Structure prediction request, 480 residues.
Amino acid sequence: MDMANGKLPTRAEDFSEWYNQVVLQAELADYAPVRGCMVVRPYGWALWENITSILDKRFKETGHVNAAFPTLIPLSFFEKEKEHVEGFSPQLAVVTHGGGEQLEEPLAVRPTSETIIGYMYAKWIKSWRDLPVLIVQWGSVMRWELRTKLFLRTAEFYWHEGHTAHATAEEAKEEMLRILDIYTDFSINEAALPVLKGYKSESERFAGAQITTSIEGMMQDKRALQCGTSHYFGQNFSRAFDIKFLDRNNTLQYCETTSWAISTRIIGAIIMTHGDDQGLILPPRLAPIQVVIVPIFKNDAEKGRVMETAHRLFAELKGAGIRVKLDDREEVTPGYKFNDWELRGVPLRIEIGPNDADRNVVTLARRDRPGREGKSSVPQAALPPTVSGLLDEIQRSLLERATAFLNANIHQPGDYEELKSIVADGWAFAWWCESPECEAKIKEDTKATSRNIPFDQSGEGRCVVCGRPAKVRAYFARAY
RNA sequence: CGGGGUGUGGCGCAGUCCGGUAGCGCACCGCGUUUGGGACGCGGGGGUCGUCGGUUCAAGUCCGACCGCCCCGACCA
Prediction:
């Protein structure tokens, strides 16, 4: 096993470098030889698998099926939807040669698959009986990003993209919201990320969408990170790709379509929401290793007693379905292991030394409460339920802490000057007339953009920028 | 693409001003002692100094061109 090394900068010193070092030293990912691309290492991929398996289950429970479409898409497909081409053309990687020959038509490496899936849907959908079509693709896509950062923005990234076709606008919008709710529930209850859901402003909308909804999280530097999106396209793509069906009255209709995605970016959100100066803190429900056992001994006599206990408790915890690891490396000291597993964010550590073994106890150390405060001594008897309970408690406390942080850093500005000072170090929740001009002014003055607009609104106010009547309040923040 | 940096064992750097055949820390390998918060000693292995060209008896070092990567901006999940 590779060992971690080096010290982390503190979050206060340099949040960005802290983030980079956590990703690298915890061995979640590494830089690839291709500019802007990352290698997701086994520990990072294990985390991603825990995320994907939960989401996959929820999609299947709601009637979705998985399929795979090609990585390469004829370049001409991107010309078919006007806004889509404008949005994605600058970011395309294009294959011009194959087998040593120049291709007749260049092929884009997919930046997202609406076009090719739309093309196939046009072939497959003929009748109202064929609808809805609810397909999810798990894979990677490529966007030629100018500035990249591990997990947050890489040229190639992993995700799922759901693409659905429906007979009516109502059904399609319901689908968009159903998925947004799955995303929200997943983020809050599995990842312990207290995200806020809403719809996007015109300028923040996905290229080609009529409605874009999102969930937005607040990182510890108070910048916003979009953690998932769900789009309603209306008939934009079905008209561009001729996705039509005969309804019950034998009338030809265009489908209503949606698409939605969560990417490996959410790993960045987990890191930047929960981590501390020791490194990663993973929510127990997603952690590849929930519990690590660190045996401690000085000589062979102690080793025998301690390891016997360690193996026995390891088997008990594993049998109870807890993801547990026994760190039996002898070439590094216990102190090294403590730091190593803290860096990797394992939620709970079990220390077993000669004293513990003799007294039939173990020492537990919670990752979310560093130092002595998080340590306790518990009986070895009935350890699995004790550990399960503590993992639940850690999961709860991570969400609670992140939620308190979120709430403490959202403020309602009384006027524009106040908005400017709020978004310098937090989020503003402000009345807005929804005009692109006012949003553009905010962006120009502060670099903050509208993150999203909650669905449930009450009352009326005056736009914080122009003073005209405003029906909604929106979140404004600097975003990743 | 604009601005700023930087390329020397796996990683981080020194050496470049003033040319003389490459060094330090970490990591790695071996042996021994250690082990309840990042252990120590001794002994090892590993580098055509980003690339190409030029000057010179001699280039990591001087000159020229090119390339890569990182950071800051415009674009984005």
About this structure: Residues 1-5 of chain A have pLDDT under 50 and may be disordered. The two ends of chain A are 33 Å apart (CA to CA). The domain at 291-390 of chain A is CATH 3.40.50.800 (Rossmann fold). The first helix of chain A runs from residue 15 to 25.
